[in-house]
Specification:
Order of helices and strands: EEEEEHH
Number of domains: 1
Strand content: 25-35%
Radius of gyration: 15 Å
Number of strands: 5
Number of helices: 2
Helix content: 10-25%
Distance between the termini: 30 Å
Largest sheet: 3 strands, antiparallel
C-alpha cells in the first residue's frame, strides 16, 4: 500500500539496512485527475527526475516518486499538499484532451 502513494510521503524502511523500500519506476511525468472528487490533481513525477527551482536554482532531493503542485495554492510548493481538492481546482485543458 505504501508503494502506491504517488507523492512518496509514505515510505517503507528496511530496519536492518536503514534504506527506503521504493517501487521501481522509470522516469515519467503524468497528470493526475480525480474523477471521484471532480478535481484536477498534481503532476506525478517518477523515476528520480531531478527537480530544480526556476526562481533560485535550488535542486531538490531526487526521489523515486513525488507530486508537484498544479493548482498554485500548495503551502509546500513546489510539492502538492492536497489543497487542489479543498479548493475544487479544475484544469479543463487536460479534461478535454
Amino acid at each position: 500500500m505504501v508503494g502506491n502513494c504517488p507523492s512518496g510521503r509514505l515510505i517503507s524502511w528496511n530496519r536492518r539496512t536503514a534504506e527506503a523500500i521504493e517501487p521501481t519506476r522509470g522516469p515519467s511525468i503524468g497528470v493526475i485527475e480525480d474523477p471521484v472528487l471532480g478535481v484536477s490533481g498534481p503532476l506525478w513525477v517518477t523515476g528520480g527526475i531531478q527537480i530544480q527551482s526556476g526562481s533560485d536554482g535550488h535542486v531538490y532531493e531526487s526521489r523515486a516518486r513525488m507530486t508537484l503542485c498544479r493548482c498554485g495554492q500548495s503551502a509546500n510548493k513546489p510539492f502538492c499538499d492536497g489543497t487542489h481538492a479543498a479548493i475544487g481546482f479544475r484544469d479543463d485543458f487536460w479534461r478535454a484532451a
